Each structure stands twice: as structure tokens, then as C-alpha cells.
Amino acid sequence: MTAPVATLSDARLSLAGNAGRVDILKGISLKIARGETLGLVGPSGSGKSSLLMLLGGLERATGGTVEVLGRDLTAMGEDALARFRRNHMGVVFQSFHLIPTMTALENVATPLELAGVADAFDRAAAELDAMGLGPRSGHYPSQLSGGEQQRVALARAAAPRPDILLADEPTGNLDGTTGAAIMDLLFGLRDRHGATLVLVTHAPDLAARCDRVIELVDGTLAPRAKAAE
Amino acid sequence: MSVRNAARIARRELRGGLSGFRVFLACLALGVAAIAAVGSVRESLDQGLARDAAVILGGDAEIELTYRFASDAERAWMEEISDAVSETVDFRSMAVVPRGDGAERGLTQLRGVDGAYPLYGAVGLEPAIPLAEAFDGTPEHPGAVMDPVLIARLGLETGDTFRLGEKTFVLTAALTREPDTSAGGFTLGPRTLVRLADLDGTGLIQPGTLYESEYRLALPPGADLAALERQANAALEGAGHRWSDTRNAAPGTSEFIDRLASFLVLVGLAGLAVGGVGVSAAVRAYLERKTGVIATLKTLGAETRTIFLAYAFQIAALTAVGIVLGLALGAALPLAFRPLIEAQLPIPAVYGVHPGPLLEAALYGLLAAALFTLWPLARTEQVRAATLYRDGAQAGAGWPRWPHVAATLAILVGLVASAAVLSGLARLTLWSAAGILAAFLSLLAVAWATRRIARRLARARVVRGRSSLRMALGSAGGPGSEAGSVVLSLGLGLTVLAAVGQIDSNLRGAITRDLPEVAPSYFVVDIQTDQLQGFRDTATGDPGVTRVETAPMLRGVITRINGRPASEVSDHWTLRGDRGITYSADPPTGAEVTAGAWWPEGYTGPPQISFAAEEAAEIGLSLGDELTVNVLGRDITGEITSFRNVDFSNAGMGFILSMNPAALRGAPHSHIATIYADRAAEARLLREIGGAWPNITMISVRSAIDRVSEILAGIAAATTYGALATLFTGFIVLIGAAAAGERARTYEAAILKTLGATRGAVLANFALRSAIFGLAAGLVAIVAGGLAGWAVTTFVMETEFYFEPVSAIAIVAGGVGVTLLAGLAFAWRPLATRPARVLRARE
Lengths: 229, 843
Prior knowledge:
The complex is a heterodimer.
Chain A: E1 4-17, E2 20-33, E3 37-41, H1 48-56, E4 63-68, E5 71-72, H2 78-88, E6 89-92, H3 104-114, H4 120-130, H5 146-158, E7 164-168, H6 176-193, E8 196-200, H7 204-208, E9 212-217, E10 220-221, H8 223-228
Parallel strand pairs in A: 3-8, 3-9, 6-7, 7-8
Antiparallel strand pairs in A: 1-2, 1-4, 4-5, 9-10
Helix pairs in contact in A: 3-4, 3-5, 4-5, 5-6
Chain B: H1 2-14, H2 22-51, H3 53-57, E1 61-66, H4 72-81, E2 84-99, E3 102-113, E4 124-126, H5 131-136, E5 143-146, H6 148-154, E6 161-164, E7 167-177, E8 191-195, E9 212-218, H7 225-235, E10 242-245, H8 251-289, H9 291-299, H10 304-336, H11 338-344, H12 355-378, H13 402-423, H14 426-459, H15 467-477, H16 483-518, E11 522-527, H17 532-541, E12 545-561, E13 564-565, H18 566-569, E14 579-583, E15 593-596, E16 608-612, H19 613-619, E17 626-631, E18 634-644, E19 657-659, H20 661-664, E20 670-677, H21 679-692, E21 697-700, H22 701-740, H23 742-754, H24 759-796, H25 805-825, H26 828-832, H27 835-841
């Protein structure tokens, strides 16, 4: 295994709920290699998405460490995490999460602009073209179909050429055909740019396309995953 | 059935509480409260004026004579019909306090009163001694009481002496309350009271002196006032008298109160219009949240009508709550601020809960709520069941069906008509309604333009790379933009404020900046004919004096036009009460005769009249018309033989009516003068002329201008408070919009943070967005307020308009500041919330 791009050591996450604190992740230790495609599977509520959020610095671990590209995310502030994300990560969600007040082009250009890229709009336009969405670049999210929205989200995640792509059930809201097309694009991106891809999915066929699959059960790594690690 | 079903659905929906309707309730309650409060104060004052009419008037009836006292026969008639009669005389004079070689002089409104004064009410003195004792003075000098303002100005203390005309008085007390002053109008000098008999020997009342004698009558209970007024007209026929009685004790005051109150109600309606934006936005937001419920109900078989009624019932229930809250607040406010109102308006008032004004406010509230909620309610019809399965963002964006549009228009007409009828100022109401409507449409257009421009700019190359600015512009111009509600709610209040600012600065500028350039230094009255030459020599002999103008001055009432009573011909201001009139052999310097011809030199034929051209045109007078003027009880009828331009704008001498000398020379009269002098010479002139002729009254135009400026400042302040109240409602709407947008901003912030935006960048984006809207509203306010200011300055004040940049800049800054404040108040949660929580909640 090459040098890991991310290392989790006894990472824990517990959140305050109405019925008291709930332990979401109960001590996850995991290494992810550079360029690897990792599938996260498991039943609903097992903590897959939470683990992805920890990796993206979108959620802060309440115990253990989360090290990504040599930086300990648990020791970084909100803004430092934001800057880290824009320089190194792309995130794709099940519900797309496009900014509704921005056109497709503006959505894609935003992370580039935030990173201070000079030709942000040209690159964003090229990325949309690559996704086959050139003619739709001036449209708002509400004017796009689900598949189109997810393609815009993919373009937005990929445009800054991130080291790590995090995808949280990217086909969960799409029909089978559209979902398959999106996954082709996602894996294509990974192949083109050589990024590490961490994918949360329920679909066995998608999981099968990953280099490695780990399973979470009730906030812990299932024995199979432990064994694989 | 649909009604019962609708009511059932409405009841279930309302179980969720009123938390989403705080802005709705606040806007409606504030608007209703403002109108109810103003109406309650007006009713309190009206009832107070009616209750204390006799005290305010000083008697059950009053007869006022200009320039003369009542004859024995007239006095006998008054005593015959009354239980008691009080005689007073009122005129301007100078109070003089000798100081070393010189003297301190102050203009005063001097009043001589007899022993019966006051018939009703009591005079307030400090120290609290009886008035008769105060007038007794010392063995050497008669006593006088004086307004504390004048006492302070002259540096007097109780026991000090001062001169009125040629006689010395001793100050025995400060006059803290004069029971019958509420009925009086504008006066330049503070009051001094002396015993009427003590005016003998002052030399102040001479033939031609400008004074008014007033006779207050205490009438037997149940006296028929209308019959007595008719009798008075017969008994004093042609004497140029003025009759007032308790039926309308203080016509000027009650008219002022009514006008001010009506005006403030109109301002309140503007506030309600701004609040309506908030009401409408709240209903729209509520129904958008309910889109899923509506679609589900439709899926379950609910008809469009049932759904419309279900939400209409909810809004009606909330409207009732809002109106009740507003009425409670509006009824309580005048009681809470009673001391403040009493200090500002020293008029008797009957404070309490008055149902009339509350009903009026409730009606406005009901109509406004209907007007602003019908449109969003009508959109429930456009929600389709399919919305459940597709994105509903585009639902309900079109026009409602025509019956709803027609009903909205009918409610608008009903609201304006109610205001026109109930305010009693139909014309002003219609103009105001047109103004508010025009402002609304302009603001809507500007909001639309702001979105378009922001949209354009967001795509412009120059903003690329400036991510915060580009994002702010993008969301200002994109879907779900808050441009409409923010620009509308803030723009109207700022526009009123800007208009007041421009009008006020122009008006004050015209009076304080331009007028002193052309106005005389002194306006001099009561110069006796035998003093005229000496006065002229003294004034023109002063090196600082550039010009002196004098004219004979009489006061007369225009009683008939071509034989018909003047009041039947027109109610023009020149025909109400007595006016200064003059005579001269030649046209006044600089006056242009616009029609007819001035009388020939040495003309001694039947009286001829030259009338002010503009006023003649307003009344409808023509050359050859006959005017009857009552001067000192004598009717003089003359023919109008010329019209001339009279300029009142430079505070110089201007007479509406001038006659040929032979017509008036025989009547006892005095002269008035204007002195144009350097500022440095003013004190010297006052000393020299005042010293030489104690009966002459010199009115400093500069002081008069200051006094007028003070009054204007008061009116401007009252209007500004009205505008600020509108702005406050606008601020609530802004807060409502910001609160409503918080969820969307939290979501946006979460995505932006995921994409790598720091909190600073997100905050800058939100702040810039608010600033863009504030700037747009401020700019509209400047343009619209400037236009209103120009129109009023040009067409009403007829002076040159100057754009006043300071208040304009303040208004733009205020607009930006207020929107920033409202926006940033709701930026905390979006900035503080972790992205993962927000985004996963939406999965």
C-alpha cells in the first residue's frame, strides 16, 4: 500500500439528540491509500455518511484523530477546514446541494473562485461541457432534472482537481439508468484526475466497482472490513 | 359542505400555533395601533375643546373689534344680554428695561385686561398671588405680569421695573398660564398682562394704533347662541366685528388638530401599506411552507374552493388577532404618553378609550389585511397535486384568476374611499393614495431592475474572481431574491423621509439663507403721522441704513363685492377677517400695474382701488368691480381700477388693497415702515428709534424668521416622526424577510463552506447582498424624495429648488445600514451551523 491519503485512528462521533447523546461512530481506525477507490457500505444509520463527513471535515470528531493529507482535521478551525477542502476535496451528495440562487455555471465556478483561480469560469464551462451540460450552463437548479443537477454537482466537485472525491450516495435520488451514467462519470473523473474516491452506497454493483469495500455496522467497522484493512 | 370542511382544516392547521406569524401580527398591529392612537388623541382633544370651550374662549361668546373699543351703545347691548362682560385689549409693543446708558428691548404681545378678567378659568402666576394683587404693583408703579421667556430674555426679576411706552411698570409675577390662549394664533412676542386702566399714560393706544379689543360675555344658562349671533350682527352692523362662541371656541386650534390628525392618519396608512408588504410576504411564506399540505389535500380530494377557504379562515383569524392587538396598543398609547402630549399640545383633552377612532382603525386594518392577503391566498388555487412529486418552486408564480384580481381592486377602492370620507380630506387622501400607489409601482419596478442589473453584473467579467461580490450579486438577482420585499418595505419609508428632508431644507434655506438677503432688518408699526418725518430723518440719517420705506396703514374688512356679502362670493383668505390696507398717490416702487390704470395725481373723485393681481384672479375679481371695505366701522365703497403685482416673498411691504389718498386720508391711522440696514446698525437703530418714540414697535425680521424657523422645525419634526414610524414598520418587514430567509441562507452557507468558503467570505456575501438592496432602496428614496421636494418647492412654495446632498447621503447610508443590520442579525446561525448537520437534514 502506498502512503495513506487519510488515516483515522479511533475516530469517534457522538451527537446530542433529544434523548441524550447518541454515539454515531464508535472508534473507527482506517487508512485510505492515495488513488484508491473505497466503497462504504452498511445498513441505514450505520454511520457511513458520518464517516464521510469526518473525512471531509464537515463534521468534527469527538474523539480520536482524523488525518488527511498529513493534516489533523480535528485540530483545525472552521475556516482552516474550509480552505483545506477547497484546495484538496470535492464532495458530491445524494441531494445534489446546488446553490438554488446560482446557475449551473456559477455553481461550478464557485469553488474555483473561492480558491482564487483566475480562469474560474472558463474552467467551469469546460467541466460542464465534459459532463455534456454546456447548453444548460445558464440554467438554475430548479430548471434542471435530477440527473442534470447531479452532473452539475459532479462537475463542481471535480473542477478544482481535488486530491480526494467524497460521494455520499450520489445515485440515491436517481433512476437506475441515470444513476449508472452518473457513476460512469464519477469513476471516469477518478480515472482522469487520479483522485482518491470514497463512495457511500447501498448498491452492491457500485460497491463491486470499488478497489476496496468496507462495511459499517452500528458505528463500527464490520469484521469483513477489519479483515480487509 | 366545503365551508365546514374548510373551517375544520383551518382549525387543525392553526393548532400549530402562531410562531410563523409574528411579522404578520406585528405589521398589522403596528399599522392599526398608529391609526388608532392618532384618532384617539384627536378625539380626546376634540372632546376637551368642547368641554372647556368657555374657558378657552374666555367666555360663552366673544366679540372682537379691530382698532377701536366698543361704543357706549354697543357696550350697553352686550351688558343687556350677558350676566357679565370682560373687556381686554391686545396689541404688539416693546418692553424696555433701562440698563446704564442704554436699554434692553423686547417685543411683546401686550394685553390690557379689566377687573372681570378672566370670566372663566384662572390665570397661573409665579409666585401664586391673585391677579388683582399682581396688578396693584407698588405705590410708585402699576404691576405687570410677563411670560417667563420674556422675563429671561430681558434679564428681569420680580420687583424690577420696565417701561411700556412712556409708562413704568413693576414686574410682580411670571405668567405661567393664560386660560384663554389656546384659541389664539401665531404670535411673535411673548405675553405681558397689565390692567386695562393702567394703559392710560403709556401713549401706546392712539388713533391708528393697531390693536384689537375683545369683549368676553358670560351668558345666562341656555342662551341661544345662534340667535345672539344674529342679534350681534344687527346691533353691531357694519362695525367690522368678529363673533365667536362656544359652539366652536377655538376654530383655528380644532382645525389645526383635525388637519394634523388627518395628515398623520394618512402617514399611518402609508405605514399600513408598508406593513402590508410584510403581511403579504408572511402569508406567501406560510403558504409556500404549506405547498406540500395543499398538494396532499388535493390528492385526497379537497376542492380548490375548500382549500382557499381553509387558508382564508386562518388568515381571517390571524387578522382579528392582529387588529385586536393593534387596537389595544392604539388605545393604550395616548394614555401612556399623556404627559408628553400635554407638554407638546397645551390643549385641554378628555383622555380615555374612544370607540369611534378605534372602529375607524379596525376598518383600515381589516381592509389592508384583505388587500394584501387576497393575492397570495388566491395562489393556493395554482398548487397542483403533482407538486408532491416534482419541485414546487415554480408553483403559484402566475396571476390569480380574474375574480380575485377584481376583488383586490374593489378592496383597494374601498380602502381609499374610506380614508377619503373618514379623514375629511378627500383631495389630500386621493393624492396621497396616488402617491403611495405610484411609489409602490416605482419600487416594484426598481426591485425588478435591481434584480436584472444584479443578474447582469454577476455575469460580468469584472466581478469574476471576486467571489463574495459575485455570489452576492448572483443571489440578489437570482431566484428567491429578497429584492422585492426589501426594496418595497424600506423604500417607501426612506422616500417619505427623503422628501421631508428635501422640503424642510429648501423651506428653511429659503427662509434663513435667502430671505435675510432681501428682507428688511426691521418691520416698524404704530408710527404716528406727526412722528413720521422724525422717524424718516433718524432712520435715513444712520450710515448703516440703505433704504427706508413707509406707508400709511389701516385695517379694514372687505365686506361686500358688487353689493353681495364677500363671504358668499368666495372664502379666499383675503376675505376672511381684517387686512392691512393703504393709500398712496403713486404706485409703490417696483410694483407693476398689470391691468387698468393707477388713479391720476391729485385725484379726489369717488374711491378707486388697486388690488393685488394674483389674489384678484383667485377670487375672480375684474376691473370695474365694486368693493366695500369696512374701516373703523365705516363702509367705504370703491371701484377696482387697476391690478398690480405684489411680491410677498421678500418680507417687504405688500398690501393687497390700496386706495387713492383722498378716500382714506381722513380716517385715523398710523404708518408702518421697513428699514433695510447693515446688521451692525440694527442694535443702534433699535436704541435710537425706540428711545425717541416709545410707542413705536420695531419687529426684528431676523427674530421673526428665527421664530418661523422654529415652528417649521416643529412641523418638520412631526412629519419626520411619521416617516420614522413608517420606516420602523419597514424595519419589521425587513426583519421578517431576513428571518424568513434564514433557513435558505443557512443552507447556502453550508454548501459554500463545503466548497471551501471561509466564514468571512460567507459573511461578506450576505453583507454585500443586504447592502445592494439597501443601496437600491436608498437611491429610489433620493430620486423620489428629490422629485417630491422639487415639486413642492417649485409649485407650492414657488421658490428655486436646491438639492440637499447631506440628508440624501444620510438616507442612502441609513438604508444600507438598516438592511445590513436586519440581514446580519440573522447571519449568526448560518455562520455558526456545521455544514454536515444542515446538508444531512436535507438528504
